[in-house]
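Design review, sub-item: ligand-bound model
Attendees: FS, YL, KQ
YL presented the inputs for the 2-phosphoglycolic acid complex:
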Amino acid sequence: MRSKFVAGNWKMNGSLAANAALLEALVSGSHGLPAGAMAVLAPFPYLAQCEARLSGSGIRWGAQDLSEHASGAFTGEVAGSMLREFGCSFVLVGHSERRAMHGESSELVGRKAVAAHAVGLTPVVCVGESLAEREAGLTESVVSSQIQVFLDVAGPAVLAAAVIAYEPVWAIGTGKTASPEQAQEVHALVRRVVAAVDAGRASTIQILYGGSVKGSNAASLFAMPDVDGGLVGGASLNGSEFLDICRAAVACGPT
Ligand code: PGA
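KQ shared the predicted structure:
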């Protein structure tokens, strides 16, 4: 059985004051939502603030990236063990903005997931096709190959411990959302790829949809049988909208 899960990717947004108000709104609005249904993924400097406000609240938190290395001369990088010291449960790996702007390959994404898993973080592995790839009919091959390369590097045990986020690049921050049917089609494909390596895990792994999820479209996306929740960017910065999205997920019930 898979329970629904929604993570808010704050990206490079926030301030101590703005986060305090947002976290307050999330904590007070989350009563009645099951523990673990919701998480926020904050910039590194704000993880201590998340830990201080969210500890004991049922809302979990995490980071948006980590180093593939455990420690050493890697100026500017942050190790998974450091994220654990601030109570993180999750870390994004392979977000399309990192793949596009920082040249992250699926191999590197696999190594980062291994580093996350090694310290007890759940990697949220992002995959998704660009508009040109979708228009060329390559969605299936691009997404399967991202997962296959990830698997070759990280291995089935790390994949089994991960959450997968399908985020079509053309839908991120654009206001264009994949239709529920488009999302379902790719989510079902992702589940088949997982099933080929770990049939048992395929029925339990959470596959989130991301890309312009809003209060107004969340329920129809989350109603799809293979959509287990969302990875929400812009709308996660608005407490009441993010809570609406989380409530929509929970209302769909476990699959
Ligand atoms: P968006 O971002 O909801 O603003 O489209 C999603 C993401 O990048 O994770």
